[in-house]
């Protein structure tokens, strides 16, 4: 069994589960650190282990361009290539190709695009992307999809969805005919699209269920819509998604976004925010959002970013020092605060799972959301 | 006793010694990782400990500008500020002020200069710099000197030397009248100048000996002169420097430079090269210089930078992966290769000390210099 549903809350749709892969187990709800180029920016695998990361996300588009997926296959798969011997997931590159500002042409066949690196021309088809994901060798591989922009009319979203469903069918067929090449199973996730149109989201799920992937992602969220709308779409989708399959919301979000989504039945999330905000001088803490670059923290020589945190950064460095590293643009500052932020997300997920197990997730989550979103002052 | 001379080789001027500080012992010959802004670029204190770093160098000019030396004093000194509870040395900022491309005016009083950050105007005098170094609180503090450019006429070098000697006298006087303020001793090093003129170097040493600092640095080296000339000047100086004091050559160099200087009686070195070359895609290895960014290493999935190295980078990551990180400009690549290069330097010093102890340094160093300077091919 790939996904094991352990428990569903009696007070919300929140679920406790476990994903079993050849590289280890992943306990859900889970947050996946983003390692686009087969590296979580500035973070060593030792640090990832220490913060109890269970699964890392990499990106097919980026790895296809550099170093090339054949190269990663030669290394024995992305886990061996990056020295991370735990579970991994690859996004298909659908979102990246969709986001390209340069040339990009979508047809039934797939997407013709130009590399953002050197302008070279490439074609992604569902089949070629599945081959790339086989070569990269992540434990979970995402379907090649067409992300629906926000806002979109019903017709636009429907056309976009047609591509995604057609491509997902072809991807599944190709995978069935072309088994894994690295000696261990790869689980295939379909991606629910349909924009903000409930009817299309439902249609998308019904069609995907027939294709029978191993898990389901909700795509096209966090693309500019209000948070409340995102929650509503996720909430709607989880009502229709099979209970015995993992549900993954892609590219979301803040700690309080995660708590909202989890209470709506979401099992997996990923986001670049912890690393990005670290670079911006912002730390998530148990007392709220701390803008450690601010003057008022310059003399906090004995206070870590979060006194209640036991990450490597908080155990060894002060706010005053972190602020100094930020001001002097020292690379260690980014690494340390990214370690803290990622640890914060992963620790939050540990708490979520403990609260689910003891059946008091909802009340706790309600309070926690308020605290976490507040601005932490001096 | 601050500096303990343990042994001098019978076959060269190489020495084995130990520097005793309130923050621990430093075994010489020693290489000091550079931590200009109170951080060794991209490297955590855990990594510094793991690579057996014994002493870190920071810079008064940089810390005076950011975060300010009063701020570091409030933190309890630079060791507490940066979370490194080992020995430290601060350079005086003389070299940095001398290197400023913007406004800078030297007089008997000191140096008026403009900050490279915001153009603000400042005055460094020997007294103000000693106060700054008292506030920063390193275990070893350098005199404020005037670096002599290369090439310089005898007259130019003599004028420059006059500033340095005058300032060193005033610095020593100020220190004698103003004891340490952080509760532990700080040892004062004078800096030998005189350009490439042997007579002036001798005069510099004779004058410094009268001032009686705790140790001696050789400044104004590695400023564009040929390596052979640098070796000759250092060789000349160590003939005249007191045997019972530590000798430090500032800002040098490659691994083979270090072996040359050590055989000429030098005890301490520092250099930015290991970090800088890491950023340039170049690793020092036991088999020579490895340009790991080169295509020929792209498929070295099972080979670390140096198969004989036991640093964190070599124990966990391959050349192929390091090359990928370099090509994708990922910050982890710089950190990992800097860890390797620094570890390489520190490990080389460990070997030097072991060879000195067993009385076979010279033959080993002769062979090693050849190997290390070679280009490591596929």
From TrEMBL, chains A, B:
Pathway: tRNA modification; tRNA-queuosine biosynthesis
Cofactor(s) for this UniProt protein: Zn(2+)
Chain sites annotated for binding substrate: 91-95, 145, 193, 220
Cofactor binding comment, as recorded: Binds 1 zinc ion per subunit.
Enzyme Commission number: 2.4.2.29
UniProt binding sites for Zn(2+): 309, 311, 314, 340
Keyword Lyase recorded: no
Domain tRNA-guanine(15) transglycosylase-like: 13-367
Keyword vocabulary terms for this entry: Glycosyltransferase, Metal-binding, Queuosine biosynthesis, Transferase, tRNA processing, Zinc
A Pfam family matched in the record: TGT
Sequence segments annotated as region (RNA binding): 251-257
Residues of the active site: 91 (proton acceptor), 270 (nucleophile)
Catalytic activities: 7-aminomethyl-7-carbaguanine + guanosine(34) in tRNA = 7-aminomethyl-7-carbaguanosine(34) in tRNA + guanine
Family: Belongs to the queuine tRNA-ribosyltransferase family.
PANTHER family in UniProt: QUEUINE TRNA-RIBOSYLTRANSFERASE
Subunit structure: Homodimer. Within each dimer, one monomer is responsible for RNA recognition and catalysis, while the other monomer binds to the replacement base PreQ1.
General function of this protein: Catalyzes the base-exchange of a guanine (G) residue with the queuine precursor 7-aminomethyl-7-deazaguanine (PreQ1) at position 34 (anticodon wobble position) in tRNAs with GU(N) anticodons (tRNA-Asp, -Asn, -His and -Tyr). Catalysis occurs through a double-displacement mechanism. The nucleophile active site attacks the C1' of nucleotide 34 to detach the guanine base from the RNA, forming a covalent enzyme-RNA intermediate. The proton acceptor active site deprotonates the incoming PreQ1, allowing a nucleophilic attack on the C1' of the ribose to form the product.
Entry protein name: Queuine tRNA-ribosyltransferase
Taxonomic source organism: Hallerella porci
Chain's gene name: tgt
């Amino acid at each position: 069994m790939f996904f094991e549903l352990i428990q569903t809350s009696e007070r919300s749709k929140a679920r406790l589960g476990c994903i079993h892969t050849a590289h280890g187990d992943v306990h859900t709800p889970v947050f996946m650190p983003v390692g686009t180029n087969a590296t979580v920016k500035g973070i060593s695998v030792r640090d990832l282990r220490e913060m109890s990361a269970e699964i890392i996300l990499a990106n097919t588009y980026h790895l296809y361009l550099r170093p090339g997926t054949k190269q990663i296959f030669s290394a024995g798969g992305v886990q061996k290539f990056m020295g991370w011997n735990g579970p991994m997931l690859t996004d298909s590159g659908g979102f990246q190709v969709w986001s390209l500002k340069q040339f990009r042409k979508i047809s039934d066949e797939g997407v013709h695009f130009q590399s953002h690196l050197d302008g070279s021309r490439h074609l992604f088809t569902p089949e070629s992307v599945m081959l790339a994901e086989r070569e990269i060798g992540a434990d979970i591989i995402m379907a090649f999809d067409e992300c629906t922009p926000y806002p979109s009319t019903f017709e636009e979203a429907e056309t976009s969805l047609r591509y995604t469903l057609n491509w997902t069918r072809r991807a599944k067929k190709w995978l069935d005919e072309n088994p894994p090449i690295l000696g261990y199973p790869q689980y295939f996730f379909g991606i629910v699209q349909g924009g903000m149109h409930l009817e299309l989201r439902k249609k998308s799920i019904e069609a995907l269920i027939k294709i029978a992937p191993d898990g389901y992602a909700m795509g096209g969220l966090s693309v500019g819509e209000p948070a409340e709308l995102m929650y509503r779409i996720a909430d709607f989708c989880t009502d229709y998604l099979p209970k015995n399959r993992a549900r993954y919301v892609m590219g979301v979000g803040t700690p309080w976004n995660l708590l909202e989504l989890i209470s709506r039945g979401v099992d997996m999330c990923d986001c670049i925010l912890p690393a990005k905000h670290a670079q911006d001088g912002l730390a998530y803490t148990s007392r709220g959002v701390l803008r450690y670059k601010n003057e008022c923290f310059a003399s906090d020589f004995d206070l870590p970013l979060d006194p209640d945190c036991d990450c490597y950064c908080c155990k060894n460095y002060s706010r005053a020092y972190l602020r100094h590293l930020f001001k002097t643009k020292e690379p260690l500052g980014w690494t340390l605060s990214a370690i803290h932020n990622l640890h914060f997300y992963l620790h939050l997920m540990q708490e979520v799972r403990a609260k689910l197990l003891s059946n008091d997730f909802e009340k706790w989550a309600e309070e926690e959301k308020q605290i976490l979103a507040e601005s932490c002052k001096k």
